[in-house]
Specification:
By secondary structure, the protein is mainly beta. Helices cover 8% and strands 40% of the residues. The N terminus is likely disordered.
Length: 479
Amino acid sequence: MTVRFESRKRLLGLAAAVFVLLGAATACQPGALAITADPALYPTFQPAVIDYVNRCDPASPTDVSVNAPAGTTVSVDGQPPRSGSFTAQVSQGVGDRFTLRVTTDAGSTTHHVRCLPLDFPPWRAEKTGVTQSQYYATALPLTFGPAGSYGIVFDTNGVPVWWTENRKRTTLFSLLPNLHFGIELIDGGAQELALDGSLVRSVNTVGGPSDFHDFILLPNGNYLLATAQQQLADLSVWGPPYEADTPVINHVFQEITPAGAVVWSWDTAEHIPVTETTNTWRSEPEPVTGLADPWHYNSVEWAGDGIIISFRHLDAVLKVTKATGDIAWKLGGTTTPDSLTVVGDPVFTGGGSFSGQHDARLQPDGTLTLFDNGSQKSRAPRAVRYRLDLGPGTATLLEQITDPIAPSSFCCGSARRLPGGNWVTGWGGTRHITEQKPDGTRVFRLDSATSTIYRGTPVPFGRLSPSALRAGMEAQYAD
């Protein structure tokens, strides 16, 4: 491998010589600045792009080739600034960053290049318009295997500008309200991480293992999680071959203090009968244990006076009032006395409903958003928003967003509406995360090259600064 690498370096030197000779016809045109590297920069160098990554080889230096026109100098990794055509070498290890400082009569700009881990998952990105999100957070690659996933923050150029130093067995990686990161572990428990990668706190449920689908930091500083505990349930009401005393997965939602004490809980099995499990999902087992999965929760949201829960196997979202434990309303699924009537939604015309929905979120204006997968219904997934009018008991469809890159979605997914009206959608069960305008026009697209995604969530402008993210990465790779 070393011989092949060195041969490639010699070829690079010959190519650089040809580049210098032919430069006047290409990148050496007056006023044109060209910077390349081996291993290559992602994206290709552009004066307006500040952050880059490469896949360096820690055993060999990174070669940086520069063609700077008259009046422009470039300093590579703090080396003396130079103009003209030259190649500089940089020693670079995994996680290491070097700088490219470009100076012209108009001033200086510092660009940053960081080396990716060797097993960092491949991706591609495309920006086609003005975004309302500054960053996008996700976990890749999506796997239940022992290798685990990186928690990653991408910028709007598709550059990973922050990631967890070590892979973790998780499907969930998101920014918490206190600007820490939250990770829910498949093996149980949740972690709160600071920007420097340090563990702020581990949190776990009491009385049963935690479920890996969501992790909420409440305004009072407590945490909201749910169990995925095994117990018996009478599934004979589903008819043959289902029986009484069948082992199932149940969810007990718990508010937990930073010290680990449970101060409030709500037991799903005690409040929702298994008759509300729709026929679509009765044969769908829980993915980790393989047990029957009558409810299968996948998101929980604080609503000020209670919690909003998305239950995939009910095809429904419901609100629980914290003070009483009563169900305040139900949206979708089988009809109950608590059900809201859906208005203006063609999916519900003639008795239709959500199918396998995810990521139900309450907006500041009181509307509700969610990702409706449309699983097993021969229809495309969509991001939707409803106005809830609890007096008459209605939910009126206000918006729905689709994208032809996602014709179906068998699981997972997220849909977040930004304050400016754009939508960031993780098209669950596909490889795509997008940001779209309210009319559906796509302004950003991120594709995982090798795995599906669980969620892709936005980080709006002003919440995390580029310098804070760089400092966090420096701290993670300080050794």
